[in-house]
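Spend some time on the protein that follows and explain the fold to me:
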Amino acid sequence: MMRRLIWNAIAASVLTCFMPPLLELTTFEHLWSFLPMLFLPLLLSHLSRRYFLLGSLGGLLLSFYLILTPGAAPWGIFTEISSDVQSVINGELPGRPAFALSIGLISFLIAYLARRTFPNRGFVFGLAFGVIGFIAYCDTWTDYSGETFILYPIILSLLLLYATEVNERPRASYVRPLSALFIMGAVIVAAVQSPVINATWQDSWYDLTSGLEGEGEPSNAIQKVGYGNNDEQLGGPFQMDDREVFQVESEGNRYWRVETKDIYTGKGWVLSESNPEIDARGFFSHFGKEVKTRNETATFEMARELPFVPYNGDNVRLTVDQQRQNVLVDPENQKISYLDDTNQQRNYQIEYAYPLFTEEQLQTDEPLDLSADDTRRYLQLPDGLPQRVRDLANQIVEGEETPWDKARAIENYFEEENFEYNTEEVAVPGENQDYVDQFLFETKLGYCDNFSTSAAVLLRAAGLPARWVKGFTGGESDVIGSAVTSYTVRNKNAHSWVEVYIEGPGWVPLEPTVSFDGAGQYTIDRETNNETEQTNPQRETENNTETTTPNRPQENLLDEEQTTSAGQAEQKSIPFWPILMTALALLFLYLFRKPIIRTLAILFFRRQIERPEGFRRMYRYLLRRLDKKGFHYQDGRTLAELAHEVDGYYETYAMRPLTDAYERMVYGGESLSADKKREYFENIIRHVEG
């Protein structure tokens, strides 16, 4: 009785461990009010059915009173519960009463299962994995941190497993408690001393299945699509990722900028310098003084806190709960980020100035008036850029008069020359191969990084200042009003494009990627019959797949380290599937080791029982298995006494006739047939091996 009570208490303690993360993520405040419904059903699970049911109901009602109506009339809990359950039936979300009721029902079902299966290691593993898995889920996908607390359910689960072993075996030795203490000590030391790897938003199935291979040819290194910071090595295929990044309510479909980069290395992009400043607005002087702008507002609801603020236009102001927020503004890469991690927001609003260019402004031919530093930055090209890239740029813009005409010619070049949008057969340039040169003259297929980088390099080679821009396309829309539209932006909407500098209008976006029309980058004002007509600059495309096509791959969303060199680490192939299949096979053999051992023993001895030597071998095997279960055959103790204890423990009549047949065979005579021996052996081995 005492052993079972201790087992019940440990099991209830393990079950209770799922409550702390739940309390942190809900409006419930105290753990102690849930203890009656969590502990009493398990503590009373060994009693008769009447007392078990009455005790469980009493614990449930006591917890309901402490949670829902403390200090009020006890019968008020029934009104609370019935009202909330009726609301759920009517299609509303459950409130505190229905939530507490579900926890009570879970506790009762677990206690009833323990009552029916005690002692059973399968129950222990299921309970432990369920609780630990729930804590791990909350730690990974919510704001709850379970790095320290998860030690408690692990230790309690090991204690519960040891208590189950003690209850399953009638005799104990010093080996088991010493082994249990050693295992628990090893787990605690490993958990405390092991280095912690911070999880990132991009942790997913793709992290496990991404093989990393070498350079040169189309790579099988499947990356994941999403926003990241490391752009030193571009290229390679990627997989779709539909996870949501944010929802935004805006006045139209907009491209959402995050940052720009200025140094092309021949393999990818890096930032030359970064000098963020604290300010209440992001003012980057994107547009000339003569360009008209329209003040727009966008409301963001992030799926998870991010270290940067997506925006559009210029003069960006961030507001949280109607309070203006200071942010870090980096004029070098036009990036808006938070002062520190604690200031990151999930829900906020931005105001910005959206450009309204005119055709007259875009067709200007004024000479450049950039500073020497900006001219150097935005016309930079690597010394190793092949001459044929420069020649191609001059060939494309030949005959074009204004900078805008030249920029549009480069923007349209890829579609006119039938370049292909492709995410699966994209090559990684070799060690001595230029990324843009490979795309323009060899593969002619790729995704947005290939098109935008190539366009930026061609613009610079043609003498037009250009910069590479990263962010998100508009996402999937759902009209909610005449002036405001709701968009869902996912990882697959991460995108890159290019901006060209034209004296007068300033920085003007271009969309060189085929199958993307660039709608939402800016608006052109056209004068028609003394009225102003505003249109989006859409490039005609045969197939507009903006909302269904994944845009660009990245490795790590939350890695904020900016790189300023173009080194590339050697990539190696990881044979994931053989390792996974081997691990699953070993796990299967471990979980089903008992039925496997039992089946093999039955098949092995089925024929041998017919011969005396085979029967003797079978009986000795049975004694060894029983010894491991705690039934020890010692000096001064007869086989008949052992058989009587085994049959009494397992409530069978199998070991005694087998033992009688064995003794008769040894000392003369035999009374059992081979079929009976086989029947009794299979009976007892099924009990011994569970």
Notes: Residues 96-117 form the longest helix (22 residues). DSSP finds 22 helices and 23 strands in the chain.
